[in-house]
Write a structure and sequence with these properties.
By secondary structure, this protein is an alpha/beta fold. It contains 2 helices and 4 strands. It starts with 8 loop residues before the first strand and ends in a 7-residue tail after the last strand.
């Protein structure tokens, strides 16, 4: 899989109280870090759950990220 040149910043979002979604987000972060040269962000309110990742304000997401990966309540990646 190859990202287009324009997708350089990826945001992740999931429900803070969903442990399964948090674990999936961590796996996605590991995958992206190992395989792609891209910047990864998590929504500001999630920064206490996922350390050492830059944050973004969901209301200003377009200023920080090119695409957002949303992890649903049942762990579905949207």
């Amino acid at each position: 899989m190859v990202f287009g040149a324009d997708i350089l910043r990826i945001g992740l979002y999931f429900k803070k109280d969903n442990k399964a979604a948090c674990n999936i987000a961590k796996r996605i972060i590991d995958l992206l870090k190992k395989n792609y040269d891209t910047k990864i962000f998590v929504e500001k309110e999630l920064s206490d759950l996922i350390k050492e990742i830059s944050t973004y304000d969901v209301k200003k997401a377009s200023e920080y990220v090119d695409v957002i990966i949303a992890i649903g309540g049942d762990g579905t990646v949207i």
